[in-house]
Design a protein that fits this description.
Structural class: mainly alpha
Radius of gyration: 22 Å
Number of helices: 9
Number of domains: 1
CATH class: Mainly Alpha
CATH architecture: Orthogonal Bundle
Largest sheet: none
Number of strands: 0
Order of helices and strands: HHHHHHHHH
CATH topology: MetI-like fold
Shape: globular
């Protein structure tokens, strides 16, 4: 019952925001050239969907490729650095510095390296996602109780058994959380690279709509991306709960 109440309140809040937005647009408080009313955005959804869905599919393929690279590098390297003190102390200052760097600054270098090609968007997505994944996995491995590692070594476990039976299960919540966050960062990285480099995809389409001052289409495209992003996060959270039961 409590969950139903929450959903009803959330729906009522969105409806109230929509009504206020519509009234403000029609009352002249908002310039429709920049902020169209929700009714205009809703009317644009059909035409935008026909135009945007093929490009969204292209963007998703690049996102999946970049995300796979980021997960492979971030989780694999994070497990190693989290468990090995000397390599961690050597490498992590550089990782922290790159993690703190605004990733948008890397996009021109990606384009310079790979040119205006889909591979540039894939690399952009991977670079945006790999550092949050890596940092969270390292933290998750470091939080493993030392007594568990000591007991496992005392029982004669090999290095691979130590990872498979102790470290990975104990760090699994951090690994799954990093993968959920990394998916969003990968998507953002691909979109920004497409916008900056003019690579065919959803990011480039939104850039074109903004330059054309086509606000209803731009808002409709943004709504499509937002709905997809929220659905992806909820889907990943669902699978995270199911996989977390493996522990």
């Amino acid at each position: 019952m409590e969950r139903v109440t929450v959903r009803v309140l959330q729906g009522a809040t969105l409806a109230a925001i929509g009504l206020v937005w519509e009234a403000a647009s029609r009352g002249g408080l908002l310039d429709p050239l920049f902020v169209p009313p929700p009714s205009a955005v809703a009317a644009a959804l059909g035409p935008v969907a026909a135009l945007a869905l093929p490009r969204l599919g292209e963007t998703l393929l690049k996102t999946l490729a970049g995300y796979a690279i980021a997960v492979g590098v971030g989780v694999g390297l994070g497990l190693v650095l989290g468990a090995a003190r000397t390599p961690r102390e050597v490498v992590m200052p550089y990782v922290t510095a790159l993690y703190s760097l605004p990733k948008i600054l890397l996009v021109p270098w990606v384009v310079l390296l790979l040119g205006v090609r889909p591979q540039a968007a894939v690399l952009g997505g991977a670079l945006f996602a790999v550092f949050p994944i890596l940092v969270q996995v390292v933290g998750g491995v470091r939080d493993v109780e030392p007594i568990l590692l000591t007991m496992a070594r005392a029982m004669g476990t090999t290095r691979w058994q130590l990872y498979g039976k102790v470290i990975v299960p104990a760090a699994l919540p951090a690994i799954l959380a990093s993968m959920r966050v990394g998916a969003v960062f990968a998507f953002v990285g691909v979109l920004l690279t497409e916008m900056f480099a003019g690579i065919r995809g959803m990011g480039f389409l939104m850039h074109q709509l903004a330059l054309a001052f086509n606000a209803p289409f731009l808002f409709a495209a943004t709504a499509m991306i937002s709905v997809f992003s929220v659905a992806t996060v909820l889907w990943l959270a669902h699978w995270n709960r199911r996989l977390g039961a493996w522990r």
